[in-house]
Amino acid sequence: MEMGRLVFGLCLILIVGTFLEFSGGATAAKGVTYDGRSLIIDGQRKLLFSGSIHYPRSTPEMWPSLIKKTKEGGIDVIQTYVFWNLHEPKLGQYDFSGRNDLVKFIKEIRSQGLYVCLRIGPFIEAEWNYGGLPFWLRDVPGIVYRTDNEPFKFHMQKFTAKIVDLMKSEGLYASQGGPIILSQIENEYANVEGAFHEKGASYIKWAGQMAVGLKTGVPWIMCKSPDAPDPVINTCNGMKCGETFPGPNSPNKPKMWTEDWTSFFQVYGKEPYIRSAEDIAFHAALFVAKNGSYINYYMYHGGTNFGRTSSSYFITGYYDQAPLDEYGLLRQPKYGHLKELHAAIKSSANPLLQGKQTILSLGPMQQAYVFEDANNGCVAFLVNNDAKASQIQFRNNAYSLSPKSIGILQNCKNLIYETAKVNVKMNTRVTTPVQVFNVPDNWNLFRETIPAFPGKSLKTNALLEHTNLTKDKTDYLWYTSSFKLDSPCTNPSIYTESSGHVVHVFVNNALAGSGHGSRDIRVVKLQAPVSLINGQNNISILSGMVGLPDSGAYMERRSYGLTKVQISCGGTKPIDLSRSQWGYSVGLLGEKVRLYQWKNVNRVKWSMNKAGLIKNRPLAWYKTTFDGPNGDGPVGLNMSSMGKGEIWVNGESIGRYWVSFLTPAGQPSQSIYHIPRAFLKPSGNLLVVFEEEGGDPLGISLNTILVVGSSQAQSQFS
Prior knowledge:
Elements: H1 3-22, E1 32-34, E2 39-41, E3 44-46, E4 48-53, H2 63-72, E5 77-81, H3 84-87, H4 102-111, E6 115-121, H5 150-169, E7 180-185, H6 198-212, E8 220-223, E9 233-238, H7 241-244, E10 255-261, H8 277-289, E11 292-301, H9 334-346, H10 349-354, E12 356-363, E13 366-373, E14 377-384, E15 390-394, E16 397-401, E17 405-410, E18 414-418, E19 428-436, E20 444-447, E21 459-460, H11 466-470, E22 476-485, E23 492-498, E24 502-507, E25 510-516, E26 524-529, E27 535-544, E28 562-569, E29 575-576, E30 582-586, H12 589-592, E31 607-608, E32 620-626, E33 635-638, E34 644-649, E35 652-658, E36 672-675, E37 685-691, E38 701-708
Parallel strand pairs: 4-5, 4-11, 5-6, 6-7, 7-8, 8-9, 9-10, 10-11
Antiparallel strand pairs: 1-2, 2-3, 12-13, 13-14, 14-17, 15-16, 17-18, 19-38, 20-31, 20-32, 21-30, 22-27, 22-30, 23-26, 23-28, 24-25, 24-27, 28-29, 32-37, 33-36, 33-38, 34-35, 34-37
Helix pairs in contact: 1-9, 8-9
């Protein structure tokens, strides 16, 4: 073994051990201020690493383990958004129970000795349905979101104050001895500010002043808002903030990175984005070298978009490539490599925070960032931006750096960490089937009735906008109409256009065709042959959404749903039915009776499945029961044999699935769907699946999930 490699390893062991020793005490801050170098907590400058964990994307039973693993990874702060549409689903009616128990989540963080950054927003984006805004806002007269608009500002201030008052009542702000050291107002406003012209600038000034006026006793931040008004701190989001962020808009504000993306969001039809541990470490180290003092990893644990909470086309698993995967298991080497980075940097926190920075050129693509103070010592960051390895001379010592790497020199001499050298072995996630639901007699089937035009209470002579009718209480809206055919029609076909996400077209109760859009394709166009009869023909079109958008200006103006319907007969001019009389039916019968709950399961007539009748049935509900697997490790359903729909276990929705929407490589974007252990009983669990397109439930399997490799198998609660 080379002596240099041995010294490098021993230094890391000593640093990690020292770091863990000093990070174990409970955190009870009593005062938070800042200057141009860092946050100052109880009179002490702080160099902080933070990790995003969103409380509703896991379960309260998982929170202690997630927080524990995050702390063990060298994280000081848990950062979370606040989800307005969860907490105020109806105007003036609040919900802070179960996964929505924000206070319980923050108290668990406090009990484990970490700080909190509370991103109230209340617009949050976050790949969350409607960016966290409650849909009822759209019905407020005269409202325009996120601009200098009195109706929006009234409701935004009311909810922000509600959250601040709740935190104060529980003594959770650092000014009260609690763990909350930062709060955020608004979110990435620079992305939309230009669309609102002068009203954008006045709104962001108002938002900052409003937040500060709530007197939390801790600083407020705004991410991606260069014109954040004093004393609000503007911060950076992205993957390379050490290269892209010009810094705060005042020399008296610290340099902070609120979203260091550990991966990237994933939508149906796309592959996961893989960001390496080396790349994350390089840019985090560079940010610190350039005077950064707060880095938050977005996400540290992504979790699961349960129910209908994901935004348009986003998969149910969220940031599965984070240091803690969707199930809360360590993803190595990302977790371990970053843990070692945190330890290496914190071993020299004093010179970093107290020393004078000097920048030296060591070559055409090599630099040294040196922090030195007579009383606090010295630390240097040697940066090699070259795609080739480099020999660097620094203070009469030679150092060999890997391509695109940063070396950290403790005492400006000992190389204790290099971002491109990973000492942690990769682990592998293993999925093991423990039950296959392949016995037809164990399944029951209920098929949705296709509504016909007569008898619907709401009728119009135009195609109405989808969400104006559904109010986002369901993904589904039926459009029904009929037309009379007086003469023979040669080669009949139907053409539809929709600004929704999915359409299923039925003519005379027969499925004519289906179509869907994508994150890149905003208009769904479908041309399909049909069978028509002389006389009256019924058209029933199911319009579907896969989440509402999470960002952009003028979200309240966006429209969805069916926009054009035409019938063609050979080469003749199409018959335009768009302004014919249409009827509407909101949602599905199975949703209305909530047949996925035990107490309602017998409110419809289920059919026993025989002789292959179970397969390839569109608009079908399936139910069965199963026993929970032994152990306490993660559990998931493999839905590869199905198409598109939603899954419930014991009445809890584990999210939408869409395995028929394949990536360019011909694979589903997500096949395994997480069932939290908290949703399961030892035996007699109710599984209900709604399938839109037609699939084979006999291929569904129940799986246990663990990781093997660099560490022993983990549970969600270890």
